[in-house]
């Protein structure tokens, strides 16, 4: 360390809630993997691998996934509207179709310039387009005034938790395992995370009795439990909720007056069964039993980062509010105003996601081909990985269901657990670190998401192309087991 | 109101710190102006004006300002890299120059896809480009590891205040008048804003004795004053600090061990004198008096939203840290990781801003012409507005100095103050509301930024084209004064 005089800030006096927040997806392992990547880029040949595989984060376009052509063509025109003065060149020489040009013109007419701030909750016409999509998806009305365009779903979660959490005593039910955004945000807000466990024995299903138990226990301690987070399809588990499960959750939310936060960013990444939106199920319940469910408050989140869109880097998303008090909505509006607005080009991408080319449109055929190819690729890779896990000693993994992840259990020999303890590490972290050092494959240890005491897991995306890296995991695991047996 | 049963959340039980936060720039007046705009768009002819002029917010491209061609050409290629397969068409038919194509290729080689998450602190090569710019600007080294790319400067301020504020007792010195992002963020964090007044009698200069007084008073009350915000050039005042003023501030920061947060987003919007960066002055002091200033911590912020770039909607920016403890930097890195990364296309725009075409480059001539035309236009409009204010009874305004704003004092007759009180409004808010209703011109009342007890101001941008709106303010003011005299 340098000998500069100490400044005002040090690790002991910064915001303790920042200090406490944990975010394993981009933690020590991720940082180390980037160091390896930089080393390899410098031509270093010391490492026992030639490539770093970032299977720690759902970042499709960092790996193999190509963006959807229609989306990017429209965005290129939004970025440089001067190109619209050359329609003939676009159409005849650059492969742009008429619907690309029309859409770009329409978006520009509504947003003005993508370099201008929009309304704090997003460009009104884009919010209307989202509302139209939700109506088509669910068969129930949606109102543009209840839609908030956000910088990815993360920023939406941040907004909602900021407004919902009154103080340290506010409790939010969060599934375990979970995407660590939730626990990190609650730590920052100094609110109480009330964990409920998903049921690994039923393919990570949502078990309402587990939710009830966790809620009752927290309430008995005096916690003001006021919201429940549901990630459907699940992250890191991939599990997809049945309509009955959603009804049970909504029923419980109604009884306990819990705000439902439905993280539905993987709604198109479903391999088994069918995605059911919380909004549709809530509206159906309200229709079936008039009056009974009227007080239920639902916030559902979506993003351009996931699905077949996979445009993480653009930071676009939205959330819809159902049943929220107008005065509470005004506070949400004020909160989003403070950071001005979501990136406008990402708002345009949200519009393209919810309103893609339709059959008969000039760009439809290519769009449809690209979309299906991405979907099928993801599914194939998921199964290839799953089959590889099936061959690994002490590893158990349910059949892939959706999202972009697998979350196998791994049973590690006692000697390995001891070796981990000697390093002051959790056993799953120790395992993932050794794997990274040996193979260049970066996973996230289960402890980053939470797991039942005494169980160990890791999360891997199934985005990386090829099978070599899968083979290297199998090989590493064999060596690891042999070493510590 | 509807008769739906009350939900869990209401205005009395949401986060009290969100409730307390104020953000006048996008408050009641702004919302009302948007309603008027929508009315006019529907063809409504009831209103006494034909156009809404949003002079409340520094949003150049919402008004007259065109984006700089070089920037948007490069971004269009980053959005649709397939266009790079048609270089001949780009060059010969679409007016793209070779440096546009080269830059896009370089950015894509460094970022991968703009649809992929980057490193949490931004694409390394773009951080290096920012560091290179800072070295050229200041004549002192800069390190890419100390640069954090952010979603506009607002998100940088949010990050820094989050880490700096330990609890309710943490005090941050904030200039009054100020951009309300600071007070709003401190309210959200439940930390203490320690206001210090700028000196209107010296063209809104920074008066170190006022800072000392405010700091001493807060410390006497037991507040842990640990940082000072300086907005240079000023918002809403436009004032530009002299090198001596900056030395005095840094000296005081050294004595009191205050972290300096230098909001330098208007660094190129300077009409009078010259911009001096805090970094350069700090490094100069450190060179002149070795050892003495080594412990000073400085964070300086920049954005693509302001200057001649004016790309607010893209949400790009960065901050540089100087003298921060590595462990504190690690907390900052973790904090930004939780929201993953700044929009990657906006990161590319940051790179273009700090590394624009140079003399001799194919795109230089047009870039230079566009840049200077924007600068001169802003200056002309600022002076036209200033001259108009000079003719208004009871209005006083210093000569335009920089940024995008004028912040005149207005003396309102006692009868108008009474009428405002009868409506339960501050007098400046009352004035601005009547102005909006009569003319469609939206300003921000001085109370939104803070002002000395007993004084009234408003802030207006000088971005809107034409002179008609200026005339309508003059006319309104005359009528207002006559009515309430």
Biggest protein-protein contact in the assembly: A-B, 107 and 107 residues
* Strand content range of chain A: 5-15%
Q: What is the class of the largest domain in chain A in the CATH system?
A: Alpha Beta
Q: Report the uncertain regions of chain A.
A: none
Q: How many whole angstroms does the radius of gyration of chain A measure?
A: 23 Å
N-to-C span of chain A? 40 Å
For the biggest sheet of chain A, the summary is: 7 strands, mixed
**Oligomeric nature of the chains:** homodimer
CATH architecture of the largest domain in chain A: 3-Layer(aba) Sandwich
Q: Helicity level of chain A, as a percent range?
A: 40-55%
In DSSP terms (H or I, runs of 4 or more residues), the helix count of chain A works out at 17
The strands making up the biggest β-sheet of chain A line up spatially as 2-8-7-6-5-3-4
Describe the global form of chain A. globular
CATH topology of the largest domain in chain A: Aspartate Aminotransferase, domain 2
Number of strands of chain A: 14
Number of domains of chain A: 2
CATH superfamily of the largest domain in chain A: Type I PLP-dependent aspartate aminotransferase-like (Major domain)
Q: Indicate the structural class of chain A.
A: alpha/beta
What is the typical, i.e. mean, pLDDT of chain A? 92
């Amino acid at each position: 360390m340098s000998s500069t005089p100490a400044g005002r800030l040090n690790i002991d006096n910064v915001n303790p809630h920042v200090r406490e927040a944990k975010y394993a997806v981009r933690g020590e392992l991720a940082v180390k993997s980037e160091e390896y990547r930089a080393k390899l880029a410098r031509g270093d040949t010391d490492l026992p691998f030639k490539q770093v595989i970032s299977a720690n984060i759902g970042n499709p376009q960092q790996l193999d996934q190509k963006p959807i052509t229609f989306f990017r063509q429209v965005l290129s025109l939004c970025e440089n509207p001067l190109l619209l003065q050359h329609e003939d060149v676009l159409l005849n020489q650059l492969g742009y179709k008429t619907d690309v040009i029309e859409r770009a013109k329409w978006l520009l007419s509504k947003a003005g310039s993508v370099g201008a701030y929009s309304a704090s909750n997003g460009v009104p016409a884009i919010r209307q387009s989202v509302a139209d999509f939700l109506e088509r998806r669910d068969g129930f009305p949606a109102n543009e005034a209840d839609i908030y365009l956000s910088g990815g779903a993360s920023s939406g979660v941040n907004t909602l938790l900021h407004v919902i959490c009154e103080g340290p005593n506010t409790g939010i039910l969060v599934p375990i395992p979970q995407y660590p955004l939730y626990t990190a945000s609650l730590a920052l807000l100094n609110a109480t995370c009330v964990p409920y466990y998903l049921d690994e024995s039923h393919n990570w299903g949502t078990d309402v009795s587990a939710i009830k138990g966790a809620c009752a226990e927290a309430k008995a301690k005096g916690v003001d439990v006021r919201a429940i987070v549901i990630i459907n399809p699940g992250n890191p588990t991939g599990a997809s909720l049945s309509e009955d499960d959603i009804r049970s959750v909504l029923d419980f939310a109604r009884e306990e007056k819990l705000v439902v936060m439905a993280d539905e960013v993987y709604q198109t990444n479903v391999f088994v069964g069918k995605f059911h939106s919380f909004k549709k199920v809530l509206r159906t319940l309200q229709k079936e039993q008039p009056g009974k469910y009227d007080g239920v408050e639902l916030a559902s989140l979506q993003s351009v980062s996931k699905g077949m869109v996979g445009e993480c880097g653009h930071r676009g998303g939205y959330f819809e509010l159902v049943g929220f008090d107008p005065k509470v909505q005004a506070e949400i509006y004020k909160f989003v105003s403070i950071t001005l607005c979501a990136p406008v080009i990402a708002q345009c991408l949200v519009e393209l996601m919810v309103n893609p080319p339709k059959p008969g449109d000039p760009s439809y055929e290519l769009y449809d081909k690209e979309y299906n190819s991405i979907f099928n690729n993801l599914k194939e890779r998921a199964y290839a990985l799953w089959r590889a896990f099936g061959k690994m000693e002490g590893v158990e993994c349910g059949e892939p269901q959706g999202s972009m992840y697998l979350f196998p259990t791994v049973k590690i020999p006692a000697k390995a657990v001891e070796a981990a303890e000697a390093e002051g590490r959790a056993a799953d972290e120790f395992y993932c670190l050794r794997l990274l050092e040996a193979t260049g494959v970066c996973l996230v240890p289960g402890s980053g998401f939470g797991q039942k005491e005494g169980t160990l897991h890791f999360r891997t995306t199934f985005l990386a192309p090829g099978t070599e890296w899968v083979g290297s995991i199998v090989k590493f695991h064999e060596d690891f087991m042999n070493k510590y047996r």
